């Protein structure tokens, strides 16, 4: 019994404990809102793909965890007020569909826009994100 408790504690402390797909997305969003790139990277697969869908085209925005980290560093520097909230979430197996609302300031005025995205989760990590145009 003590060994099981010890192993559970080690798994939780190391972050290797299996997470539900919706929890992975919620934790990723919290790390994003904290601008905590290291915590974001703990929740993504090393070969993550971030894809934008526009009409009948899909464009690769970033491929790989390091490319995502570089993109986020630049984005957080350019838009330091950025935050996102989840307005709606639906889980279907390993896919998590989300209506996200981005919030930021521009010229001292609050701004926001919503967009749909689908996160693919495997083994407790984000493998792929499809991001649709913002409204």
Strand content: over 45%
- Sequence of strands across the biggest β-sheet: 2-1-6-5-4-3
- Helicity level, as a percent range? 25-40%
Overall average residue pLDDT: 90
Count of extended strands: 6
Count of separate DSSP helical elements: 4
Order of helices and strands: HHHEEHEEEE
Unreliable runs? 3-14
- Envelope shape: globular
Q: Termini, distance in Å?
A: 53 Å
The class by helix and strand makeup works out as alpha+beta
Please describe the biggest sheet, giving its number of strands, its sense, and whether it closes into a barrel.
Answer: 6 strands, mixed
What integer value in Å does the Rg equal?
16 Å
Notable characteristics:
globular; 135 residues; 4 helices; alpha+beta; 6-stranded mixed β-sheet
Brief digest:
With 135 residues, the protein is of the alpha+beta class.
What do you see in this structure?
With 135 residues, this protein is α+β, with helices and mostly antiparallel strands. Helices cover 34% and strands 45% of the residues. A hairpin with a 2-residue loop joins β1 and β2. The N terminus is likely disordered. It has a 6-stranded mixed sheet.
Secondary structure elements and pairings:
Elements: H1 2-14, H2 21-33, H3 37-42, E1 44-54, E2 57-63, H4 65-78, E3 83-92, E4 95-106, E5 109-122, E6 125-131
Parallel strand pairs: 1-6
Antiparallel strand pairs: 1-2, 3-4, 4-5, 5-6
């Amino acid at each position: 019994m003590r060994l099981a408790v010890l192993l559970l504690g080690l798994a939780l402390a190391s972050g290797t404990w299996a997470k539900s797909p919706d929890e992975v997305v919620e934790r990723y969003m919290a790390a994003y809102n904290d601008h905590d790139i290291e915590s974001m990277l703990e929740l993504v697969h090393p070969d993550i793909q971030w894809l934008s869908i526009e009409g009948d085209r899909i464009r690769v925005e970033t491929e790989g965890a390091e490319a995502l980290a570089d993109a986020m560093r630049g984005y957080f520097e350019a838009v330091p007020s950025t935050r996102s909230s989840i307005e709606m979430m639906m889980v279907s197996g390993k896919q998590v569909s989300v209506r996200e609302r981005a919030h930021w300031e521009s010229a001292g005025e609050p701004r926001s826009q919503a967009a749909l995205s689908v996160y693919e989760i495997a083994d407790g990590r984000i493998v792929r994100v499809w991001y649709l145009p913002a409204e």
